[in-house]
Amino acid sequence: MGYDSEDMRVVPDTREPPAPAGILDIARKELAKRIIGQHEMLDGLLMALIAGGHILLEGVPGLAKTLAVKSLAEITGLSFKRIQFTPDLLPADLTGTLIWEQASLTFSVRKGPVFAHVILADEINRAPAKVQSALLEAMEERQVTIGENSYPLPKPFFVLATQNPIEHEGTYALPEAELDRFLLKLLVRYPGAAEELQILHQTAPVPLSPVLPLPALEALRAAAEAVYVDEKIARYIVSVVAATRPPPGKTGGIEPGGMAEKAGKEGLYRYISFGASPRASIALYRCSRIRALFEGRGFVSPEDVKSAALPVLRHRLVLSYEAEADGLDPDGIISRILAIIPVP
Q1: Of 244, 248, 289, 312, which cross-links 227 as Cys (Cβ 3.0–4.6 Å)?
Q2: Nearest to 209 by CA among 14, 5, 22, 33
Q3: Does the pTM of the predicted model rise above 0.85?
Q4: Which of 33, 34, 28 has its CA nearest to residue 50?
Q5: CA pair distance 221, 179, nearest whole angstrom
Q6: What is the rounded CA–CA span in Å between residue 148 and residue 263?
Q7: By the 8 A CB rule, do 164 and 123 touch?
Q8: pLDDT at 127 over 60
Q9: What is the pLDDT of residues 182-215, one digit of tens each?
Q10: Per-domain residue ranges for the chain?
Q11: Which residues on neighbouring strands pair with residue 110, listed in sequence order?
């Protein structure tokens, strides 16, 4: 639908709706009006939005993490709430609480800021575990329990949490159960020199249009579901995720000729304490389809799986002290696993 410029009457829009690739291109261009560079982060935000998953953003302060989340909410036209996580935050500050009404002598529910479509959990690792755990039910079940009743959250519901890797004092590590609820972990890096020069020249705030409303988002989700995944690609996805799991005893119980044996021969399992769960396989499957959609293809290729593997798996691996001593990070381990898994 559109509007007549003179009297603001609603008039029918007879134009054909854009194809999925066109919708994505429009959304990217709209975000690029405000966010200079950071293409990997913006594509990750759109990927998780289409997949219906949550994102953990990690980067030093000042890299436009908060601005990117706000911009994403603006182009979708969805409700947005920002929650600043601090050490004195309480679970009820997120979810809401029961308020005693003296006039009616009953309790009424006061819903917290988590009741919005897009939630920015800013500096999530600054709050203690009991506050972080308050998000678990919301992220997984899409509901919040206040008192004896559970209340559904708006649809879609999208949590984007940020954390600063350099501020260790006064922070709390996220539990593995919560990390596994995040579909992707995106590393936000410094811009290049040319991009930073553009940032200097962009002094005035740039308004954004809601170019990705809910109907367009639903169209993208339907298009992603229609992307074909060959059985060999599905087996490849399972092999990649399974290769992250150390076998019992690290050395015993390895199936001869399997991916675990190859990873064991490479010496990778001395660096991994715990691998990725089946939830990671589901996430990699969904994100590979969306990656193919980004490329304008109707089928998933091995390169789509490799491209999605890092953001899907990097926060799901628990590395050993040996990995830290040898200066290895999850991305390095995942890259080595991808190198030894035969590509279909």
Answers
A1: 289
A2: 33
A3: no
A4: 28
A5: 24
A6: 49
A7: yes
A8: yes
A9: 999 998 888 888 888 888 887 777 888 888 988 8
A10: 34-201+211-216, 227-340
A11: 97
On whether the CB atoms of residues 208 and 33 are closer than 8 A, the answer is yes
Instruction: Look up residue 336 and give its two tokens.
Output: 């080595």
Question: Which tokens in the block code for residue 324?
Answer: 């830290």
For residue 202, what are its two tokens?
């962009």
Asked whether the domain spanning 227-340 has the same topology as the one spanning 34-201+211-216, the reply is no
Long-range residue pairs from 195-199, CB within 8 A, at least 24 positions apart, any chain: 195/36, 195/37, 196/36, 198/36, 198/37, 199/36
Q: Where are the beta strands (DSSP E) in 29-130?
A: 54-58, 80-84, 96-101, 106-111, 118-122
Q: What is the CATH number of domain 34-201+211-216?
A: 3.40.50.300
Which residues fall within 8 angstroms of residue 110, CB to CB, at 6 or more apart? 96, 97, 98, 99
Domain 227-340 listed as CATH 1.10.8.80 = yes
In the block, residue with structure tokens 């992250």: 244
Question: For residue 250, what is the enclosing H or E element?
Answer: none
